[in-house]
């Protein structure tokens, strides 16, 4: 695991998807019915998985080169998926289905020259993290009427999930964190659905070497292009004292669906960015290109065997007033994956002052913590008076 010490970070990349189970109900007759599979992710209210599925989705379909369904609302009611726009029936020709969750007004459906196109146009990530949505899509092609026909839709996450944790590797430091921001990101992009079924899934996503290759994904226009952005996203939480082991700041555990940090899980655009580069003469990061974290924290020197808030000296901020530290980061995020950023305190300079004194004629980004290191010199023995004589004779001898 790559790690950048004290305010820099180790990055763990994990796939956030696994196909766990199918939820649905069979019906007799020619009615088109649905079953839904949702890959696993983390957030109590609006990050979905099989144990926390969406309550509704919208579906469009094409058959025989013509639009057959246009954005029907399918809701889960009384143990089954019910079409709120009325019953749809199987045609003689095969049907291709395109479904989405949380696409809203950005969803665009069209059929031209016998081919369907499903897109999210100008999808913009909500700046308020608690209001961000889990944008999902599904494609199922070549479906025909059979006995107990049912369309099984496997939904995928179109966004990237970003969560945070921290650890303190120094017994000489006391560290508290109450917020994290990530700055200079892209927040708007266009997404095109794949033309083939989204049935296959991540393999062994919880293993030591997860297989995160996934074919037949949709595409974000700027996902694989390094592009400077201006958006910032912030989460705050009650002050967390950072321990020697990894300490969650926002939800990092797939098994936790109702944790107190769920509302702080970020759902952001897949993207590539370059990191802000702190160097002489360039001023504060907000006025430059390149993405970076702001970690709101207090750091104290621990003089004795344990932290004493009354006597130990604050090195950055205080318990009563946390201060932000700027840390360069380069994003390289793929859709449907969760990225756990670990802030490691204990070595290094600890990030940079994000807002240098404007009165400073050369407001360079100053390191927040400068470690106390030692080197030594030793004075030479100085000859004061080389002519001191010592008499060694025995008093009275020879008299």
From TrEMBL:
Membrane-crossing residue ranges in chain numbering: none
Origin superkingdom: Bacteria
One Pfam family cited in the UniProt record for this chain: Mfa_like_1
Coiled-coil stretches: none
Alphabetized InterPro entries for the sequence: Mfa-like_1, Mfa-like_1_N
Protein name: Fimbrillin family protein
Species assigned in the record: Caecibacteroides pullorum
Highest classification ranks of the organism: Bacteria, Pseudomonadati, Bacteroidota, Bacteroidia, Bacteroidales
């Amino acid at each position: 695991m790559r790690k950048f010490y004290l305010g820099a970070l180790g990055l763990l990349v994990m796939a956030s998807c696994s196909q766990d189970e199918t939820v649905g109900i069979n019906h007799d007759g020619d009615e088109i019915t649905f079953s839904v599979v949702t890959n696993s992710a983390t957030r109590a209210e609006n990050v979905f998985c099989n144990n926390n599925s969406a309550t509704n989705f919208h579906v469009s379909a094409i058959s025989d080169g013509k639009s057959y369904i246009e954005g029907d609302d399918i809701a889960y009611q009384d143990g089954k998926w019910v079409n709120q726009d009325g019953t749809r029936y199987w045609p003689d020709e095969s049907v291709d289905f395109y479904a989405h969750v949380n696409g809203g007004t950005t969803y665009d459906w069209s059929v031209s020259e016998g081919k369907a196109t499903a897109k999210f146009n100008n999808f913009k990530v909500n700046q308020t993290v608690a209001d961000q949505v889990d944008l999902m899509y599904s494609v199922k092609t070549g479906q025909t009427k059979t006995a107990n026909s049912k369309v099984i839709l496997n939904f995928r996450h179109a966004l990237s999930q970003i969560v945070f944790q921290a650890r303190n590797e120094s017994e000489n430091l006391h560290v508290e964190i109450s917020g994290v921001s990530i700055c200079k990101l892209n927040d708007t992009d266009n997404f095109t659905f794949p033309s083939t079924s989204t049935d296959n899934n991540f393999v062994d996503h919880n293993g030591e070497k997860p297989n995160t290759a996934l074919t037949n994904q949709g595409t974000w226009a700027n996902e694989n292009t390094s592009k400077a952005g201006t958006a910032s996203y912030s989460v705050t939480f009650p002050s967390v004292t950072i321990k020697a082991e990894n300490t969650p700041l926002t939800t990092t555990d797939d098994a936790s669906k109702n944790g107190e940090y769920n509302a702080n899980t970020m759902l952001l655009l897949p993207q590539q960015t370059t990191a802000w580069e702190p160097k002489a003469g360039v001023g504060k990061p907000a006025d430059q290109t390149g993405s970076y974290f702001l970690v709101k924290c207090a750091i104290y020197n621990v003089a004795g065997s344990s932290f004493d808030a009354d006597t130990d000296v604050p090195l950055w901020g205080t318990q009563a007033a946390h201060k932000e530290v700027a840390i360069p980061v380069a994003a390289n995020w793929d859709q449907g994956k969760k990225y756990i950023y670990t802030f490691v305190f204990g070595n290094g300079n600890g990030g940079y002052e994000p807002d240098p004194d404007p009165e400073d004629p050369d407001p360079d980004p100053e390191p927040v913590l400068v470690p106390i290191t030692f080197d030594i010199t030793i004075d030479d023995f100085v000859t004061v008076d080389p002519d001191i004589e010592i008499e060694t004779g025995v008093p009275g001898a020879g008299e």
